[in-house]
Amino acid sequence: VLSYIRGPFIFVFNFHPECTYENYHIGAEEAGEYQ
């Protein structure tokens, strides 16, 4: 899993072909609703 913040956007990528991370938490600097 690779994640980064670029401006107001948070990008999260999973490059594993078989595993998914449904409840994986990524920290964000600002509170809000994220999808």
UniProtKB/TrEMBL annotation:
GO molecular function: catalytic activity; cation binding
Domain of life: Eukaryota
Signal peptide coordinates: none
Domain Alpha-amylase/branching enzyme C-terminal all beta: 1-35
InterPro entries from the UniProt entry: A-amylase/branching_C (IPR006048), Glyco_hydro_b (IPR013780)
Biological process (GO), any one: carbohydrate metabolic process
Pfam families named in the record: Alpha-amylase_C
Name listed for the protein in its UniProt record: Alpha-amylase/branching enzyme C-terminal all beta domain-containing protein
